[in-house]
Design brief:
This protein is mainly α. It has one domain. Helix content is 76%, strand content 0%. It has seven helices and no strands. The chain starts with a helix and ends with a helix.
Length: 196
């Protein structure tokens, strides 16, 4: 249970860091251009497929002697490899397959390996893996959509000059993380009542 909670904390930290850099355009002009492109649906789909494939790899295909502590060392390189291969295949099938926000070499900025760690510790069958992977992707999608809407409305409505742009996004991310953190605690309490 402690490994799962630690993995959830790391996943949420990586997600918030990724979404903040996505929303604020932390990489300068490239980040701003990236933020204007839109939602990376293609890469979110690859993230979903990667989690499913890697769960099958680690639970069914990988020999039992590789399971346990040593499999943690394989999470990052195999996640990066799977993301790169799926992107390469996707580019061959669909040459103009959408936006690129995540970096495949880093396992989508660490989201895929941490999602895999959470999935391996929580899921017992393929249906549970499917649901977890789907909600990892949907969580990132919803956060990106919320930030796009905040950015769009801040340009249309009267917002004080000192709150425009980055300050408004930082305040909104703080409130969003409080809401999602509280919801996660409530959901874990409900799960503990049923399974604990």
């Amino acid at each position: 249970m402690m490994v799962t909670l630690a993995a959830l904390a790391i996943f949420s930290g990586l997600s918030i860091n990724l979404i903040l850099s996505f929303a604020l355009g932390a990489a300068g002009a490239a980040g701003e251009a990236r933020a204007r492109k839109g939602i990376p649906f293609f890469q979110l789909g690859i993230m979903f497929i990667s989690i499913l494939f890697l769960w099958i790899l680690f639970t069914i295909i990988l020999p039992p002697q590789w399971r346990g502590f040593s499999e943690y060392f394989l999470f990052f390189p195999l996640s990066a490899l799977v993301c790169m291969v799926l992107e390469r295949l996707g580019n061959k099938v669909l040459p103009k397959s959408g936006n690129r926000v995540f970096n495949a070499l880093t396992g989508y900025d660490g989201l895929v390996p941490v999602s895999l760690l959470i999935t391996l510790s929580l899921a017992g069958n393929f249906l549970q893996v499917f649901v977890l992977a789907l909600f990892f992707v949907l969580g990132n999608l919803v956060a990106m959509l919320i930030l796009f809407e905040i950015r769009r409305r801040s340009t249309l409505e009267k917002v004080p000059a000192f709150l425009r742009g980055s300050p408004l996004i930082l305040i909104s991310m703080g409130l969003l993380s409080l809401i999602t953190g509280t919801t996660a605690v409530i959901c874990f309490r409900i799960l503990e009542m049923f399974y604990g």
